[in-house]
Design brief:
single chain, alpha/beta, TIM Barrel, 2 domains, eight-stranded parallel β-barrel, 8 strands, 48% helix
Length: 308
């Protein structure tokens, strides 16, 4: 049985988590190899690749629709490859174009090892869901994106979880957003994602209105959505809760403080404070140093035989 469990694909594992009525899926927001490794070390069942974090870390730009399919796919593939036993849900933004591009994006995310993704109904030149002034495509174009995603998945003969996200709440209101999500689910999306939930009551309502479909909550600290703990989200009916800013905020604060200290004092202080005095080696251990050495030695390599 253990051997069979080892053969479960990431998407199979994600679907099992989705079918577990006692569980809410926590998606810690990661945006590069190091933050992904840290989350893996913490023992999460699932990872979430934030599009905003990917855009900022990979391009040094804000989340304004500038990341391309290649940017997002390559980043997602790298993160997914770090531990194939842990499913990755990745942002797919708008699908990067018309139906042909959406289909291509789905196929490439599958090939990259991504277990699930969310796709939204903003125009291609999108912006972060917690900024103002978002523009949406028509209902017809939105449904074409979902059909393209579902058809592309079927064409590959392989699986990936499709999460339909709408940003319609802010400009078109709850009923329109609900209609768009219901339509996407009817077309074959596996889960729904109402971006920018404005109250806890609204969160409970969207879960009830879409039941029994699983619903995702985007917990953006400082955004338009009130704070939910994972337990609160579960009690309100959500199946997923993702935290895109989990690593971004702490990294920004700590690195900004370290840069300020270096600029003002001409010294770094103890930049590895909290790593038991082991310096960079502790970080390398988080990123698989021990496993890399063991692999090399098992293959007959000599370079790391006596350690590092």
């Amino acid at each position: 049985m253990a051997e069979q469990a080892d053969r479960i694909s990431p998407v199979q594992k994600l679907r099992r988590l989705m079918n577990d009525s006692d569980k809410i899926i926590l998606g810690p927001g990661v945006y590069d190899g190091l933050t992904a490794r840290i989350a893996l070390q913490a023992g999460f069942d699932c990872l979430y690749m934030t599009g905003a974090g990917t855009t900022m870390s990979r391009l040094g730009m804000p989340d304004l629709g500038v990341a391309t399919l290649n940017d997002m796919r390559d980043h997602a593939g790298m993160i997914a490859s770090l531990d194939r036993s842990v499913p990755l849900i990745a942002d797919m933004d708008t699908g990067y174009g018309g139906p042909l591009m959406v289909g291509r994006a789905v196929e490439q995310y599958i090939n990259a090892g991504v277990a699930g993704f969310h796709i939204e109904d903003q125009v291609v030149n999108k912006r972060c869901g917690h900024l103002k002034g978002k523009e949406l495509v028509s209902e017809t174009e939105w449904y074409a994106r979902i059909r393209a995603a579902v058809n592309s998945r079927a064409k590959t003969g392989r699986d990936i979880v499709i999460v339909a996200r709408t940003d319609a709440l802010q400009s078109l209101g709850y009923e329109v957003a609900l209609k768009r999500l219901k339509g996407a689910l009817e077309l074959g999306a596996d889960a729904a994602f109402l971006e920018g939930v404005e109250s806890k009551e609204q969160g409970r309502q969207i879960c009830a209105d879409l039941a029994p479909a699983p619903v995702m909550l985007n917990m953006v600290e400082g955004g338009v959505t009130p704070h939910f703990s994972s337990q609160e989200a579960k009690e309100h009916g959500f199946k997923f809760i993702v935290y895109p800013g989990l690593a971004l905020g702490p990294v920004y604060q700590s690195v900004a403080a370290a840069c300020k200290h270096l600029k003002e004092t001409g010294d770094t202080g103890n930049v590895y404070q909290g790593t038991q005095g082991q310096g960079p080696k502790e970080l390398f251990m988080v990123c698989g140093l021990k496993e890399a050495i063991e692999f090399d030695v098992a293959a007959g390599g000599e370079l790391y035989k006596r350690g590092v």
